[in-house]
Amino acid sequence: GAGVSQSPSNKVTEKGKDVELRCDPISGHTALYWYRQSLGQGLEFLIYFQGNSAPDKSGLPSDRFSAERTGGSVSTLTIQRTQQEDSAVYLCASSLDGGYADTQYFGPGTRLTVL
Amino acid sequence: AQRVTQPEKLLSVFKGAPVELKCNYSYSGSPELFWYVQYSRQRLQLLLRHISRESIKGFTADLNKGETSFHLKKPFAQEEDSAMYYCALVPSGTASKLTFGTGTRLQVTL
């Protein structure tokens, strides 16, 4: 079946602009995660959605970052007033139910470049 | 807070040689541990996890709680094993938010 998809694959923006990154999880997966992969920090957890529960936002680096998940499916990660340090690959993953040892399936990522 | 350490950024081995990718963790409880792999121009994918006690593509990993390690091993490296390998941890009994190591690039040469 179809895997996790993300769009756009690449995004170049100017410092101070807002950007939206989209993630389509695998159908039927109730858990959705956002990670960031950057040169200096490696792979970092950002935010986690599970069903209708309140999201776990503990990994968001600042209040410029927010995410929502509509209808328990598609998710959008929004970065406001982008900074150069936001340049990274943003990865989305989904899993069946977010359990302890659940397998996460990753999307191809969105490469964000802030000029 | 938990932490995962992969001390080698790059590991270069010859085809047919044994491979050991090191992973150490710090966490006070009993974590679940994973190895994820990213082949060139492919997405990040699960290679294996401790709870399944499995061998995938000839790779195995043993959890050593005394040494807090979860090293990935393969007796004979193949060219197609060349990739980026990430060790990751989930604290016991929690939602599956992965804490990753910084990764090791494995390069298998002829």
Put the structure in a nutshell.
The complex is a heterodimer of chains A (115) and B (110). Chain A has 115 residues and is mostly beta strands. Helices cover 0% and strands 48% of the residues of chain A.
What does this entry look like structurally?
The complex is a heterodimer of chains A (115) and B (110). With 115 residues, chain A is mostly beta strands. Chain A has strands spanning 5-7, 10-13, 19-24, 31-38, 42-50, 65-69, 75-79, 88-95, 105-106, 110-114. In chain A, strand 4 (31-38) and strand 5 form a beta hairpin. Chain A is globular, with a radius of gyration of 13 Å. The N and C termini of chain A lie far apart (37 Å). In chain B, a hairpin with an 8-residue loop joins strand 9 and strand 10 (99-100). The mean pLDDT of chain B is 93.
Percentage of residues assigned to helices of chain A: under 10%
Strand residues, percent of chain A: over 45%
Distance between the termini of chain A: 37 Å
Classification by helices and strands of chain B: mainly beta
Compute the CA-based radius of gyration of chain B. Answer: 13 Å
> What is the distance, rounded to the nearest whole angstrom, between the alpha carbons of the first and last residues of chain B?
41 Å
The H/E string of chain A reads: EEEEEEEEEE
Note the quaternary state here: heterodimer
Q: Compute the CA-based radius of gyration of chain A.
A: 13 Å
Task: Describe the sheet with the most strands of chain B.
Answer: 6 strands, mixed
Total number of beta strands of chain B: 11
Largest interface: A-B, 28 and 23 residues
Count of distinct strands of chain A: 10
Whole-number average pLDDT of chain B? 93
Mean pLDDT of chain A: 93
Percentage beta strand of chain B: 35-45%
Order of helices and strands of chain B: EEEEEEEEEEE
